[in-house]
Each structure stands twice: as structure tokens, then as C-alpha cells.
Amino acid sequence: MKKYLLLIFALVFTISATFAQDSKDELDNTYHLYLQKAARMEANGQYDEAYDCYEKAYSEYNNIQPLLNMAMLHAKLKQFKQAANTLKRIPTKKLPIAGQAEVALLLGKIHAQEGDMVSAATDFAESLKLVPEKSAAKIRSAMVKLIMGMPYSAEEILAKEKFIYKNGYSYEDLKMCFAIDMYTFNFGRAFNTCKLISKANIKNGPKNDFFNLLLNQPLIIFISFLPLFLSRYMAIFYYIFLFTTLGLSASALSKKTNIKHVIIFVIGGVALLTIAQNYCINDVYTSLLLDRGDNIYDGIWIIPRMIIASHLVALALFLIFPLFKLVKENMRPVTYELLGIWLFCFFFGIFVLAFQSNNLKLFPRLAYMSIGIIGSILSALIMPFSKLLIYKLFPQTGSAVVDNVNNSKSPTKNLSFSDIKILENKMWNFVNNGDITSALALGKKVLNLETKKNFPSFALAMIVSQISAEDYETAVKSINDFYQIFQNTDYYESCQVYEAWLKTEKGDFPTACKLINSISADRAKSMSGDESAISLLTLGRYCLSIKDNVQSHVNYTKALQCAKSPLIKLMILLELSELDNAINSKQSLQKWKMQVTDLPVRGKCLSYKNTINSIVANSENKIQEAYDLAKECMNNTVPNSKSVAWYGHLLVLKGKHSEAEELLPKMKAGSYTAECLMTEITTI
């Protein structure tokens, strides 16, 4: 009987134990399910639901982990009082030493988030005292020391540590260790830590493509974060070395060098990065301490990421600058333009990073973006070819922005390719609008043998200005110099066009005709509209010299159709008006009068325009109006023999031969127009 009772007891005990185990397993499963659900809710931003799940997990299984998680969530949301109250629910003194250390560690994190680093240091020290080998407490104690300005105390805490995962150091711990080692010049251990960070990044990365693998190489990580985590004075020394080397490299590769620009760049670069580092570094350390370093779009990482990006750009420029050796020497940027690339990247980086930081408050975000965009615009003005691009896209605005270029006291010393191209455009604008005085002043200021060789269009503009100013001797010299420099080039035949024009001004029509006819057909097709117009004008003058008025008129009309420059158009219209006045074609004269209405009214263009209107008025028998318009041309500061000759012709018609003769000194001696007026005075 006893045997049966014993057997029954054993069976009942076994069944009870089985049910008890099943009940315990079910309880464990429910507890873990609540924890998992709470973590998922927290990740999705459903914080109230997460709190409920943590509470249920705690009520199901009397474990401190849900309370720790709740306290951490409160701290994450900056609800520090709620976090502290949650920790008070934990029976700390009843916990084992490891549990007490965990509570002290979390309390230290809460104080750190509040900004109370003194209390945080005490809590971390308490956790470390309870469990001396607790890695999380050890590294956080060291980081708080660093934040409080005691780097050597931080180094002492970690002096004998080897940072490997087997020692219990997490990924977040390694990043803090790397920052501390960089600050305290322990570069060897810092590089070893980079290897571990690299493995973790590659392992946890979303994809292992070539770019991801490259960015996570230990050396790349080490170099990228080098300027951010160096100590203040070490960082300044490094920045001076970096920017000085970069500036000297740009000087060696650029077209022109001004050491003053290099010095300004070094001072500016060092100041910008030093100010940026000191402004953000404590926030960076705190972010690492609170395990928020992975959220790179957090507003706190705008300045740190900008420092990292600017540092990498500076290093990349050492590879980019030599590529300018492939550019023709005359087109290479000057030193300050090359260095402007870094400044543009610096400020544009601030703008982009601020734009990406969605969780940043509106006012600081707009402030960062404003600084970035204003700095980008200003620095863009000194980048290679940027001023020229602005000038081309926005002629009026661009002219105002870069107007200081032609105000330089010694422009030939430090002008870049863009500067000279802008001045070239300005000079052609002066010429085309008849402002010959300004064109000559600008040309004399900038043009020398070197720029003639590098900028043929500038030299041609100077020749046109000299011919328009009736400075024929200087124009002949400039043309001969041009021929010597540009033999066997297309510019050579362009110069032939202007030489032919000059020949007609001096009355050598046969030679002018030969020069035009010697230009190859292929080159003639590729000429600009104004060059074609001057060629046809020259041929028209030749035909007029041999009394072929019809063909002359045809050539003048074709020339007018080709011309783009207002000066050339008015010059052709004046010759057409003279020809039509001679053959008494009043209908054509009215047509030319209408065409001059919208053309510029300054400089030589004004005198041409008044002369044309005077010729039309004379054909309409408005003698006094014609006389007044012609006389007004005498006030023009730029010589204009055509206008003087017409005024002299009107004086001769009035019988005022002596007054007409007094005009001859105002005309270019030896010019064809002056000889014609002299002939008219002496033969009537």
C-alpha cells in the first residue's frame, strides 16, 4: 500500500512540477513579448503605448529591466523628472551589486542629458566603484572627465585598456574611446579602435557596395574624424599645416600668385574651423555619451559634419589642383580662385546640412541656411571662371558685381583669366556703343605683349578703338605687332579686315580691296557679323572710289544686314546716307533715319547719329536744323572726320569757305576724308 501511495505522490508531484514549469515558461514568454512590443512601439514613436507595454512587462515579471527601459525612454524625451521617479520605483538596495551599478549608470545618463555633468560624473564613478570592470561605466566616466576639461584624468581611467569586444566594449563605447584617444594623442590605439568600428559599420551596414566599403576603411575613418577630435591647440597646428600646404600647392599650379592671398586663406581657414570646432565639440562629446551619435541628421551634427566634409574637401583638392596643369597656361586660375573652391564647399556644406536637418528648430535652421547661402554666393565670386559666368548670364547684374575688376590699380599683376575675359567683354561693349575714350583707357591699362598673345580678341578690340579714334599711326603699329604674334592663325585674317578698313580711311582703296580678296573662303564663312560688315564696307568704299555707285550701294546694304555692333551700323548708315544724299534718294534717307532711332546716343555713335539726321534734314530743306545738328558734332571729344567733313560741306554751301578751312586741323591729317574736304574748299 505504501508503495502505491508513494507512486501516486510521485506522479502528482511530477504533474504539478510540469504545470508549474509550463506556467513559468508562459510567464517568461509574455514578459519578453511585452518587452519586444514596447521596443517596437518606441522605435515607431508610439511612446504612450511603449510605456503601457513596459508597465505590463514589469507587472508580469518583477524585473527591473522594464523600469530601466522606461527611465531611459523618459530621459530620451527629456522628461528627466519622470525618469528619476521611475528609477525610485526600483528597490536599489535589495538589488545585487550588478543591478545597483546599472541603476547608477542610468542615473548618470539622466544627469548628463540634463547637463549636470558633475552629478553624472558622481553616478558613473559610483557604478564603476560597484563593478570596477564595468566597461560602460568606465568609458562614460572617462568621457565626462573629458567634457569637464580634464582630459588627462580621462586618459588615466583608460590607460591600460585594450578596446576589443571581448572586454565588453559596445559599438557606442568604441566611438567614445576613439574620441578620447584622439584628444590625448594616443593615435596608435585610436587607429586600432578604427579597425573595430570599421568592422561594425560594414557588418551592420545596409549594403556592402564598393562605396560603402571604401568609406568604412579604418584609414578613411581615422582621417575623416582627425580634425574634429584633436585637442584645441593640436587642431590649430594641424589646420595651419593643412591650409599652408594647400595654399602653396595652389600657388605652384596657378597662373599668377600673390602670397597675400595665401596668408589670408590660411588665416581664414584656420579661424573658420577652429571656431566651428570649439563651438560644437562639447555637444558632440555629449551626443556620444548619450548614445545619440548615429543620428547624423540631428541638428547637433551640422557643424561636426561640416568640419569633416571641409577637411576631406581640403585633402581632395591636393588631387584636383594638379588637373589644372591640363588647362592652357593662359586659362589657368590664379591662386585666390583655386583657394576659393574650398571656401565655396565650406559654406555650401553648411546650407545643405542645415537643409537636411529636419528635426532642427525653424529659427536656427534658417540662420544656418542663411549663413550658408550668403557665404556660398560670396565665395562663388572668387572661384575659377565664376565671375565670367555671372557676367555672361547676367550682363547688367554681373557687371555691377565684378565692376571692381577694371578699377584695379595694377590690373596686369594679378588678373585672372576670368578677369581679363570680363575686361575684354567690357572693352568690346565700349567700342560697340561708341565709347571709344573708355575703350582706349581700359585697353592701355590692361593690354601688354603677354595678354595680346593670350587674348587676341582683346588686341583686336584695341585696334578697332585706335582706328575709330583716328590714331592711325598707333593702329598701324598694333596691326604689325598682331601679325607677328598670330601668324598662321585665324586671327591673322581677322586683322587683315581691320587693316583693310584702315587703308580705306587713308584713301588706299586698291590695297584694301586686295587684302579683303586675299582672305580664304573658309575663313570668310567663319567670320563674325561685324567682321563681314567691315569687309563689305571696305569693298563698298572701293567701288565708290571707282565711281561704281550701284555696286557700292549694294555692298553697303549687305554690310548693314551683317553688322551687329551699333558703332559699325551707324558708320555704314552714315555712308549710305551720304551716297543717297548725293543721288537725291529721299525715300532711302527716310529709311535710314528710322533705323538710327533706337541706336546708342553716346560718344562716336552720337556724332554719327547727329550727322545722319543732319543729312536727312538737309535733304528736306531744313537747312538750319541740319546746320545745328552738324555743329553739335563738333563738341564730341572723340575725333570724327566724317562729321567734321559734313559740317564743312554745309559751311561751303553757305559760302563760308574760311570757316570750313578752319575745320581742317580738327581732322586727321592725311586721311581721305580730310583730303576730300580740302578739295571741296579749294575747288568751289
Unreliable spans are 1-27, 408-412
Helix content range: over 70%
Strand content: under 5%
- Mind telling me the C-alpha Rg? 43 Å
Q: Label the overall shape.
A: elongated
Describe the structure.
It contains 37 helices and no strands. The protein has 684 residues and is mostly helical. Helix 15 (302-320) runs antiparallel to helix 16 (335-356), helix 22 (436-446) packs across helix 24 and helix 26 packs parallel to helix 29. The model is unreliable at 1-27 and 408-412 (pLDDT under 50).
Write the layout of secondary structure elements.
Blueprint: H1 2-43, H2 47-60, H3 64-76, H4 80-88, H5 97-114, H6 117-130, H7 135-147, H8 151-157, H9 171-183, H10 187-204, H11 210-215, H12 218-229, H13 232-253, H14 259-289, H15 302-320, H16 335-356, H17 362-380, H18 386-393, H19 395-401, H20 411-414, H21 417-432, H22 436-446, H23 449-454, H24 456-468, H25 472-485, H26 490-505, H27 509-517, H28 521-526, H29 529-545, H30 549-562, H31 566-582, H32 586-595, H33 603-619, H34 623-632, H35 641-653, H36 657-661, H37 672-683
Helix pairs in contact: 1-2, 2-3, 3-4, 3-5, 4-5, 5-6, 6-7, 7-8, 7-9, 7-14, 9-10, 10-12, 12-15, 13-14, 13-15, 13-16, 14-16, 15-16, 16-17, 18-19, 18-21, 21-22, 21-24, 22-24, 24-25, 24-26, 25-26, 26-27, 26-29, 27-29, 29-30, 30-31, 31-32, 31-33, 32-33, 33-34, 33-35, 34-35, 35-37
Q: Tags for this entry?
A:
684 residues; 37 helices; mainly alpha
Summarize the structure.
This protein is mostly helical and 684 residues long.
